[in-house]
Design goal:
This protein is mainly alpha-helical. 42% of the residues lie in helices and 6% in strands. The chain contains 19 helices and eight strands. The strands form four sheets. A two-stranded antiparallel sheet has the order 1-3. It has a two-stranded antiparallel ribbon with strand order 2-6. A two-stranded antiparallel ribbon has the order 4-5. The longest helix is centred in the first third of the chain and has 26 residues. The two termini are 23 Å apart. The N terminus is likely disordered.
Length: 496
Amino acid sequence: MKYISTYLLAIVSMTMFSCSGDWLDLKPSTSVTTDEAMKTLTDAQSALNGVYRLASAHSYYGDNLLYFGDCRAEDVQARISKGDGKRVSPYYEYNVKADDSFNTSLPWNQIYKVIRQTNNIIHYIDGIETTDEVSALRIKSEALAMRGLALYDLVRVFAMPYMYDNGASLGVPIEIEISDASHKPERNTVAECYNQVIEDMTNALGGLSKEKTDGYLNYWAVKGLLSRVYLNMGEDQKAYDAAVDVIENSKSIYKLYTTEEYPEVWGKDFQSESLFEFYFSLTEPSGGSGGEGVPMVYENEESIDWNNLILTKAYLDLLNEDPDDVRHCWLEASLIENNEGLPEKARSEKVYLNKYPGKNGDPHDNDLCIIRLSEIYLNAAEAGFKLGTDLNTARGYLNAIVSRANPNKSVSANEFTLERILKERRKELVGEGLALYDYTRNKLQIRRDEPGNWHLNTLAPENSNAVVIEYNDLRHAVPIPQTEIDANPNIDQNPR
């Protein structure tokens, strides 16, 4: 592995990230230096497409990042398979090592590649001569927003949660300039990282379209991401304002799924709730391989080695509180092949999350939705509850989700609590990579000790300290890759 400063030199060769015919018309960037390659808006758009492709690929959203936040919480676990929890075990068991390439070096490298590519675009696009200033600003704005998202993803994996100490602990290096190979940055604080994320995303808004732009970031997607970032910072007024802006002012292009259509929307392209998703197709040059990581990790397919995650008894019990909840459509069960060693009260089934069924039933061919409208409603409900200034409106945002799941259900004023909001987030957003942060920002324990829970069957004795995890557990910060520590003496390792 090369340390991050070497990623800031030039655009690398990459395949195109195709989502429509105009994407296919763009040639990929070459390995020549950016000032030679980025001469036109077509070059800049090609480089931006490369950013989306890098972010959707294996070791970033195409694998690690989207399931990271779920397998470290209570509702999703590494499945039993001859006593081995497979690829997700280090995340799930809170025992990631600094020399674990899959769980440290690969995501670290991939995300900094995205940052390097966005830095190139931001640096050079102002020098391109063009009469299409709207497109130039839009490309630059998307690059800014993607840089902000990449930094946010780095800091939420490799650093402690913001609410641990209000951002005072070490985050990751902030890289917003093109640098040479001698550059060896230090880690910025978590607060500095969050401030840079907000600056990039906020600065991006003015150049982004408010129309639906499938496969690309637009104004509403970035505003929604800002509501997520602010919520995890404890900036409830800003989180609420951003979420309400999306809910109330994007109604002409985005709407919640109805109860009737809910079972049929999963795995299809660009549905009505999708603010931003990565597009994949089996016909693109990569054969859709970038999109198979997350779907195949959840898929009920015993012939492959990818299907590593199942739903926990805790989640199934939660969903079973209402047998008429439409979200039962996600559940897919199969018999455990070997019951040996299971405690008496353990279930005889393992239940998979069928949230990524793929187009035409092929999970290899599945888009990845990064932010959808249901989350925004729940962000508004949580932030609004914490503010306490307009509880009826905030409760209305929660009930939009509750009553969609079952039209005969709603939350009364007396039932409107933080606990009830978080319960609905668990039910609705399972498998979307957000669960861990619900616990850490609210300073709640993660508990995997419910009697009869599968968790106890997959955790080896040496990992018994992963049964109860406090919000301030230092293991929330995954170790910086050892190769990075070795290459850059200015990088301090996370304490354990």
